[in-house]
UniProtKB/TrEMBL annotation:
Keywords: Lyase
Alphabetical list of Gene3D superfamilies matching this protein: NAD(P)-binding Rossmann-like Domain (3.40.50.720), UDP-galactose 4-epimerase, domain 1 (3.90.25.10)
InterPro entries tied to this protein: NAD(P)-bd_dom (IPR016040), NAD(P)-bd_dom_sf (IPR036291)
Record keyword Lyase present: yes
Pfam annotation, one family: GDP_Man_Dehyd
Domain NAD(P)-binding as annotated: residue spans: 2-305
Species annotation: Effusibacillus consociatus
Name of this protein: GDP-mannose 4,6-dehydratase
GO MF terms held by the record: GDP-mannose 4,6-dehydratase activity
Protein origin, superkingdom: Bacteria
SUPFAM superfamilies linked to this entry: NAD(P)-binding Rossmann-fold domains (SSF51735)
EC number(s) recorded for this UniProt protein: 4.2.1.47
């Protein structure tokens, strides 16, 4: 199995789960300080075949898939930080869009590939008048990161219908859990601030509503879809995965404050713009077709996440 983005937050957890299941896992590694990645903290890289390269490099992808006779591709590699995507849209389009067509084309030319799972995002729906979004909700993205993921989905549809490549798409709510050291994100940033004795910061005005998904449930969603793709003929299908418990930024931060027994109050900056105001998903399709449902409530996921950061930051 090939995982692009294996050193990323979700990629690390997925890699660890597959290694524990005794799968043969090939991880595409972009580079950088890998010792600080969650993959290396878990230690599962010792049981993986790591290949250094970028999804923008088609020849590397084709060589890796062919030489290792890859059966399943989990394409998670992306520029996933919304703020950075707006600051450097060209690099975002290069990684997210070009990187995806390279992965799909390499998979098309590799006879051993039986399934490709591509990570999209709930952001592809854009601003919706009717919530929660279902898989048939029109894709109305307008901001750089969101648009890049919409393009990814159109590329997937192209390869399914033009080349019969078996591709399925995941659209997850905001995935959270231990191991995410991007403290610009609301949950790890809030936990980090409170642990250090500082007031947590909310960049928006705090009323925006989002849906969340604990990382272990996200991993189970990918594995469940991968296992059933061929049997249920799910090529070309997209699936929403979320808790179905949308909360505002203020509510989420307050919940974390209470779970950490803090008396601090959040600082609300009201600085963000060019982001979707409200977004949450229906996962009924995944529950009905795949038999998937999250095992962790928001409270349970936050408790496990806080415990992870307490141990890590100590």
């Amino acid at each position: 199995m090939l995982i692009t983005g294996c050193t990323g937050f979700l990629g690390s957890w997925l890699s660890n789960s597959l290694v524990k299941a005794e799968a043969i896992v090939i991880g595409l590694v972009r580079g950088g300080n890998l010792v600080n990645s969650h993959l290396f903290r878990l230690g599962c890289q010792k049981q993986m075949n790591l290949v250094y390269g970028r999804v923008e490099d088609f020849k590397t992808l084709l060589r890796v898939m062919s030489e290792h006779e890859v059966d399943t591709v989990f394409h998670l590699a992306a520029q996933a930080i919304v703020g950075k995507a707006s600051q450097d849209s060209l690099a975002t389009f290069e990684t997210n869009i070009k990187g995806t067509w390279n992965v799909l084309e390499a998979a098309r030319r590799t006879p051993s590939v039986k399934r490709v799972l591509v990570a999209s995002s709930d952001k592809v729906y854009g601003t919706c008048d009717v919530l929660p979004c279902v898989e048939t909700t029109p894709l109305q993205a307008i901001y750089p990161y969101d648009v890049s993921k919409s393009c990814v989905e159109h590329l997937c549809a192209c390869y399914v219908h033009s080349f019969n490549l078996p591709v399925s798409i995941t659209r997850c709510g905001n995935v959270f859990g231990g191991g995410d050291l991007n403290y610009n994100r609301l949950i790890p940033g809030t936990i980090y601030s409170l642990f250090k004795g500082n007031s947590p910061v909310i960049r928006s005005e705090g009323s925006s509503i989002r849906d969340y998904l604990y990382v272990e449930d996200g991993v189970e969603a990918y594995l469940c879809l991968a296992e059933k793709m061929e049997e249920l003929k799910l090529s070309g299908e997209a699936f929403n995965f979320s808790l179905g418990s949308p909360v505002s930024a203020k509510q989420l931060v307050q919940q974390i404050i209470e779970l950490m027994d803090s008396q601090l109050k959040p600082v609300i900056l009201s600085e963000t713009s060019k982001e979707i105001q409200n977004m949450f998903l229906s996962s009924q399709k995944a529950k009905k077709i795949l038999g998937w449902q999250p095992k962790h409530s928001l409270d349970q996921g936050l408790r496990k996440t806080i415990q992870w950061y307490r141990e890590f930051l100590s």
